[in-house]
Structure to design on (203 residues):
């Protein structure tokens, strides 16, 4: 199968491109917030019938989790895959080079960095509000798959994070004109590969 001609940009509003990947983050956070609120309202889930947070506390927590996702995801990407970004803060020849670490619109986020960022946000929030950290983690854990689902669908649309080469009937060649325009080449080559993004979204 040939990878469909997806455009990573859904629409452009003037000079501002609205990307599928950004919408995946928004959808994951908003739906995760809604689901966490439902879980928190269900007193039968919590012992002794006391949810770990109130509604206002949950609203504040979502803000900190969002910061953890964005900052952790970006810094994690730089740390694990592009450590030169940190050096460029001091050695870059232009302001754009120096601030590349903060240019989220250029792409580059990591799940493990986001995980560490969210964990740090939870620990800080529980300590600052004197809440039960484990109960707070119990509230957040069921929400994570929602974000992963939308994130992996966006990875598929971007033609990234593909799997190994394979000969299964549903294998996909992650190479088309859009990808060539975006990267200059097809990073996955021309070989058919597992659509691992869809596998992970389904899990």
């Amino acid at each position: 199968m040939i990878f469909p001609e997806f455009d990573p940009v859904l629409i452009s509003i003037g000079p501002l491109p609205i990307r599928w990947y950004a919408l995946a983050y928004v959808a994951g956070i908003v739906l995760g917030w809604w689901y966490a609120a439902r879980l928190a309202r269900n007193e039968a889930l919590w012992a002794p019938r006391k949810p770990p947070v109130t509604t206002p506390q949950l609203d504040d927590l979502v803000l900190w989790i969002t910061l953890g996702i964005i900052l952790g995801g970006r810094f994690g990407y730089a740390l694990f895959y592009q450590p030169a970004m940190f050096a460029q803060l001091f050695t870059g020849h232009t302001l754009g080079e120096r601030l590349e670490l903060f240019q989220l619109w250029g792409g580059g986020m990591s799940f493990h960095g986001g995980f560490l960022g969210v964990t740090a946000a939870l620990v800080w929030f529980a300590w600052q509000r004197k809440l039960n950290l484990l109960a707070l983690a119990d509230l957040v854990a069921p929400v994570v798959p929602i974000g992963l689902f939308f994130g992996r669908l966006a990875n598929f649309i971007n033609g990234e994070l593909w799997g190994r080469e394979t000969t299964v009937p549903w294998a996909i060649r992650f190479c088309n004109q859009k990808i060539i325009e975006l990267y200059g080449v097809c990073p996955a080559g021309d070989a058919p590969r597992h659509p691992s993004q869809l596998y992970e979204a389904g899990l």
